[in-house]
Design goal:
Blueprint: E1 4-8, H1 12-23, E2 28-33, H2 38-53, E3 59-63, E4 74-77, H3 93-108, E5 115-118, H4 123-134, E6 141-143, H5 146-161, E7 168-169, E8 172-173, E9 181-182, E10 188-189, E11 192-193, H6 200-211, H7 213-221, H8 228-242, E12 247-256, E13 262-273, E14 276-280, H9 287-309
Parallel strand pairs: 1-2, 1-4, 2-3, 4-5, 5-6
Antiparallel strand pairs: 7-10, 8-9, 10-11, 12-13, 13-14
Helix pairs in contact: 1-2, 1-8, 3-4, 5-6, 5-8
Length: 311
């Protein structure tokens, strides 16, 4: 029996997620959106591409009806309004909180055993909303942040050194925003730490570009935000879960004392498998790195507190 994945939100991120899930033949895909006709149209377009792309995944698009999501193994939530130029992720808080709560309740009612991958911004806060709205255990609610941020860091390292992206590995911890914590000590090219290959000022520049990677794309696009890389990041997480790969990836997970942090979704390395977050990996941090992670956690806590005041 084939796996089943539901994607909530048929915008640029959601549609690209659906395309990549299907083309990798990871699962049959249900694409859901409130817009009339849009998910069905995009699903049909993707099905018509299937003979060319040579996959047999079934893609279904529905408007506002969660019944098609019944018994999904994975639910990827991309729904919400996107960032516009000059808008921070925090500005999205009130609107996207309502959207996240409604869609989570709708889809988990018909897919109570699914693992949720949250993509909507502000990411860390939306994970809290989904966790509360679903009532799921913490291992089955995961935020897509670190995979994307680490991919951006890896891309910038590869550009800087003119090497294959396949040779690059990077870790970015913390919240998905300006306080994220890229870790140069754990970032390598063919196993060589970038601290051995780049000067401190170039490392600092790459770290800063990673932190503002999303805003850089928003500024260039003018009328939207990134979607190719976010979609790829979400699908890498989904693949690790659907194939029970036990893959170590940086994701937003609900911490319960790990790294000295309690009750917050924070980006940390986790083992992803059929059980969702099967293990949270605690790596040794320097005092400065731990301080930066604590600072990032406080920024997330402020967001969560602000959200609680919204009612």
């Amino acid at each position: 029996m084939r796996k089943k994945a539901t994607v909530i939100g048929a915008g640029n991120v959601g549609a690209t997620v659906a395309m990549r899930l299907a083309e990798k033949e990871l699962a049959d895909v249900v694409l859901i959106d409130i817009l009339e006709g849009v998910p069905a149209g995009k699903a049909l377009d993707l099905m018509e591409a299937a003979p060319i792309e040579k996959h047999d995944a079934k893609i279904t698009g529905v408007s506002g009806d969660y019944s098609e999501a019944k018994d999904s193994d994975i639910v990827i939530i991309t729904a919400g309004i996107p960032r516009k130029p000059g808008m921070s992720r925090d500005d999205l808080l009130a609107t996207n909180k309502g959207i996240m709560s409604a869609v989570t309740k709708g889809v988990t009612a018909v897919a109570p055993d699914a693992t949720l991958i949250i993509v909507s911004n502000p990411l860390d806060a939306m994970c809290h909303v989904a966790h509360e709205a679903s009532g799921f255990p913490r291992n089955r609610v995961i935020g897509m942040a670190g995979v994307l941020d680490s991919a951006r860091f890896r891309a910038f390292i590869a550009m800087e050194l003119n090497v294959s992206v396949e040779n690059t590995h990077a870790f970015v911890l913390g919240g998905h925003g300006d306080t994220m914590v890229p870790l140069p000590r754990y970032s390598t090219v063919a196993g060589i730490p970038i601290t051995e290959l780049l000067s401190q000022d170039r490392i600092d520049a790459l770290v800063e570009r990673t932190r503002t990677g999303g805003a850089e794309i928003v500024g260039l696009l003018k009328t939207g935000s990134a979607y190719y890389a976010p979609a790829s990041a979400a699908v890498e997480m989904a693949e690790a879960i659907l194939k029970d790969k036990k893959k170590i990836l940086p994701c937003a997970a609900c911490l319960d004392g790990e790294y000295g942090i309690n009750g917050l979704f924070i980006g940390v390395p986790v083992k992803l498998g059929a059980g969702g977050v099967e293990e949270i990996i605690e790596i040794k941090l320097t005092d400065a790195e731990q301080e930066a992670l604590n600072h990032s956690a406080e920024a997330v806590r402020t967001l969560v507190d602000d959200m609680a005041k919204l009612g």
